[in-house]
Amino acid sequence: MANILMVVSAADSLTMRDGSEHPTGYWAEELVVSHQTLTGAGHAVQLATPGGRKPTVDAVSLTADAAGGQERAEGFRTYIASLDAELSAPLVLADVDAFAYDAIVLPGGHGPMADLYRDADLGTLLAQADRAGKVIAPFCHGPAGLLSATADDGTFVYAGRRLTVFSNEEELGGGTGPNTPWFVEDALKEKGAVVDNGAAWSSHVVRDGNLITGQNPQSSEDVAKEVLKALPD
Questions:
Q1: How far apart are CA 32 and CA 51, in angstroms?
Q2: Beta pairing partners, 49
Q3: What is the CA radius of gyration of the chain?
Q4: Helix axis angle, 70-82 to 28-40, nearest 10°
Q5: pLDDT digits (tens, 9 = 90+) for 105-152
Q6: What ranges do the domains of the chain cover?
């Protein structure tokens, strides 16, 4: 059995380009499907957030339209309710030992654009985990968290690495649109990451060594399955 850390944003709003506040949080499908797949394979998953604060689910992600039907939406609600004790008392990100886990998984939603992208504790954790060859698996907007990771020499830990992320096309066409404060795809490219995106709204997973990334909510299960394949025997 592997020990897996799931780092979740604790943000509940995102400041938009025009200065307004946009309600946000984690995306239900991404947390539920990845958690379900990993625990269903017999592995232990622990949740961590900045400050140990209870994360907020993005209300939009629980609508029938966003979830892919009312039945799926209700299933997500039920699963999240079953995790309430863990979600209410997550680990404090600053206290997490990178070497206690075999993998770090980062689901998205727009929350990571508000906190994880600049969280120094996450940056330290990711840098340590990467040096140790641990599996690191952010997806959708989760790769925003990678931006926090700086090496000892001041360079971006993931410069030159191949990855995928929620694309500009998806953000403009079905995300927060032109009012988006910044684009994760652009920010990662500017830092030196090699972004390899697929068709919008289709599952697309990229693996570069210990780094496994997924493009969007549709990639949630495939990312988790790739993590399962990458875990140590």
A1: 22
A2: 92
A3: 16
A4: 60
A5: 999 999 999 999 999 999 999 999 999 999 999 999 999 999 999 999
A6: 3-230
